[in-house]
Design goal:
Layout: H1 12-24, E1 29-33, E2 43-48, E3 56-61, E4 75-81, H2 86-99, E5 110-112, E6 125-129, E7 150-157, H3 162-168, H4 170-177
Parallel strand pairs: 4-7
Antiparallel strand pairs: 1-2, 2-3, 3-4, 5-6, 6-7
Helix pairs in contact: 3-4
Length: 189
């Protein structure tokens, strides 16, 4: 007989993890980083590995504990990439840890890294977009009494594509990338 922890004893992270694991039907690996901001808790990165059913997906947990005047919802980040390179998974936790409280992570925000994210790819920046996956567009609960968190996707881009986004608009840019958004070696737009 397998015993489960009762719901009233679960931490917010366990609720959040449970919600995501039920969506993807597999267990996530969890990585923890000490906060670089005083008085804020750890940042966690939940990683679902690349399988035949879906690409590697990495979620943050800890961004929603920081407030920003331009942030109207509790927000967490995620990134999808058709790669097994863990640099893609860990960049989500790194950006969450470094930028929480300073960046609102609203749709259209540009985040410049200044260097390649992975050795196997020249992508070196991100644009924040709403979730493209219908399953991830709903709020994810992180507690019994929680209203849930809103997920925002980090879309990897080449830094020089910022001008394309400004010229043609974010919506058209996303349409032009299409399914290639998961490819770490995609062609520039």
């Amino acid at each position: 007989m397998i015993f489960k922890k009762p719901d009233f004893l679960k931490s917010p992270l366990e609720y959040y993890r449970g919600q995501l694991e039920s969506v993807f039907g597999q267990n996530a690996s969890v990585f923890r980083e000490k906060s670089v901001k005083k008085k804020l808790p750890f940042v966690y990165t939940l990683v679902f590995p690349n399988t035949g059913n879906h690409p590697m997906i990495s979620f943050s947990y800890g961004l929603s504990f920081a407030s920003h005047p331009d942030q109207h919802n509790k927000v967490e980040l995620y990134l999808e990439m058709d790669s097994n390179d863990m640099a893609w998974a860990h960049i989500v936790g790194y950006l969450t840890n470094q930028l929480r409280g300073d960046c609102p992570f609203n749709s259209g925000e540009i985040i410049r890294i200044g260097q390649k994210i992975s050795e196997n790819s020249d992508l070196n920046a991100f644009v924040v977009i709403p979730p493209m996956d219908v399953k991830l567009s709903e709020r994810i609960k992180d507690g019994r009494k929680s209203a849930g968190v809103v997920l925002m996707e980090l879309l990897p881009i080449y830094e020089h594509e910022v001008y394309s986004i400004q010229k043609i608009g974010l919506e058209e840019f996303i349409k032009r990338i299409g399914k290639e958004k998961l490819n770490p070696n995609r062609k520039t737009i």
